[in-house]
Structures are given as C-alpha cells and as structure tokens.
Amino acid sequence: MGIKIAVVGKGGTGKTTVAGSLARLFARDGFNVFAIDADPSMNLYKAVGVSNETMNKVTPISEMHDLVEERTGARPGSSGGVFILNPKVSDIPDRFKVAGPDNVQLLVMGTVTQPSGGCMCPSNSLVRALLSHLVLKRDEVIIMDMVAGIEHLGRGTAKAVDAMIIIVEPGARSLDLAGRIKELAEGLGVKKLFIVANKVADDEEAQILIKAGNELGLELLAVIPYDREIVKADLHDKAPLDAAPDSEAMKQIMKIRERLEKEFA
Which residues constitute the domain of residue 224? Predict the structure, then answer.
C-alpha cells in the first residue's frame, strides 16, 4: 500500500525530526518506505539514522551533473540551450537509494533553485520529475521532507499527495508561513492538510497553537512537547528514535503514525 506524505514548515520547527521518525515507524510496521530529502539542508539522514560515514559517499541527485545532462540534455552551469522537462527518472530511486535502519530507503534530492535561477534549471527539471514519479508511480510509503514552501510539487503531483503535514512551533512567523503554505497547497489541490504543534513548552502555548490551527481551518494531528531528550539526541548526533524512543515527543510522533495509517489504510 502506498501512502504519500509531505512534511513542510519553517526551518527549525522540527519537520525533519518528524519526517525521519515517521519513516522509521512506518517501516517498523512492515511498510516499504522511501524517505525523500527535498530540503536544501539535507539533514534527513540524521533523523533516519544513516551514518555520517555512509552519507559522505552520497552525492545528491541535483549534483549528479553527468546524470542531469544525460536525462535532460543540458548540463548544470551551462548557459542557454533547451532541456527536457519530463526526463526519464523511473530507474533513479532504486539506483541511488541509501539503505537505513529498519530498511528505510533514503533518497537525497539536493539543493535546486527556482526556474528563474538559470543554470540550475536542468537539475530542477530532474528533481521535479523524480518527485512526480515517486508520488504518482511508486507503491511504497513516501515520506517527503520538503523545503519551507512546496515549490517543487507540481499541480498533478500535489493532487496525488495523500497528506501534507505542516509543522509549527510557538511563534508568529511559523504560523504566518503555515497560512501561506495552506493557501498554496489548496490551490494545487492537496487532498488533506494537517497541522502539528511542536516544541510546545506549556498548556498556554498549546492552546495558542491549537486556536491558530482552528482559525486556519487545519486539522490538528498532535501537540508535541518541547523535549530535552530530543535536544540531547541531536547533540549526540543520533536519530531521535534510537536515542530517545520513550520520550514524550516520540510518543506523540508514534500517535501521528497511527493516525495516518488509520486515515489512509
């Protein structure tokens, strides 16, 4: 069974922790899982639990210039010329996936610019086509750690995403971005939008975020407390699920996984 989930939000809200932990939890439950790192920071591997040694050998898809040129007909960095907008990508996930704990398969997209960025257009074309293929053609559970916006999801791809989870933290900027993401996602036809309140220190913060989510018309998936165990896991460079499996934050992420499975099973 394939479930396609995009995790979005402002940088620093904890979306990568949520995305990586969800990927591991779905895999532990017997699902075939692809964890897709489409965030420029490219830190999803840490949340999944792939070692630094392994990742040092990995080249992001967008930086594979020979592959980009082979599939699009143009080399990143070259000026002018035309390139293929819908290149062949069906073989890429299985060729370049990285095996992680619990048999999660990690795929690192890398940093791409907007189409107006010029020299990176061929890479952008390849990444967009690859995301579309993963969402539309693959049967696995696909967990995508996205950039703050959702620029690389085309309309057809967005419509096929089963759920978009917007991670917010206490703060006006995080909530403002959630509102903008909601408008864009609805315009693209995303089926189901959820909100997750993260790094919540007390009941007052929780109530403010819950109220804000209600005003935005977003369905609340969970309230994740601010948890020092998750901070310690990061300090020790370990995946939260390995370092703090019994933490209060991880218990809430487990509930998110259960809710999503019931929702889309």
Answer: 4-264
Which band of pLDDT confidence, cut at 50, 70 and 90, is reported for residue 80?
Answer: low
87-90 long-range contacts (CB < 8 A, ≥24 apart) are 87/125, 87/126, 87/129, 89/126, 89/129, 89/130, 89/133, 90/133, 90/137
Nearest 5°: phi and psi at 7? -110, 120
Residue 86 and residue 79 in contact, taking contact as beta carbons nearer than 8 Å: no
Q: Which residues fall within 8 angstroms of residue 78, CB to CB, at 6 or more apart?
A: 119
Return d(Cα 189, Cα 157) in angstroms, integer. Answer: 9
pLDDT exceeds 90 at position 115? no
Query: For the whole model, what pTM was predicted?
Result: 0.93
CA–centroid distance for 28 within its chain: 19
44 falls in which pLDDT band (50, 70, 90)? very high
For residue 43 the two structure tokens come to 């830190």
CATH of the domain at 43: 3.40.50.300
Highest mean pLDDT among 18-22, 81-85, 152-156: 18-22
The secondary structure of 124-149 as a DSSP string is: HHHHHHHHHHHHHH--SEEEEEE-SS
**DSSP reduced 3-state for 121:** helix
Q: Would you give the DSSP letter of residue 170?
A: S
What is the total count of domains within the chain? 1
Residues of the chain above pLDDT 90, percent: 79
Alpha-helical regions (H) of the chain: 15-28, 44-48, 52-55, 65-72, 92-96, 121-137, 155-160, 172-188, 203-216, 228-235, 240-243, 248-264
Read off φ and ψ for residue 191, nearest 5 degrees: -70, -50
Q: What letter would DSSP give residue 8?
A: E
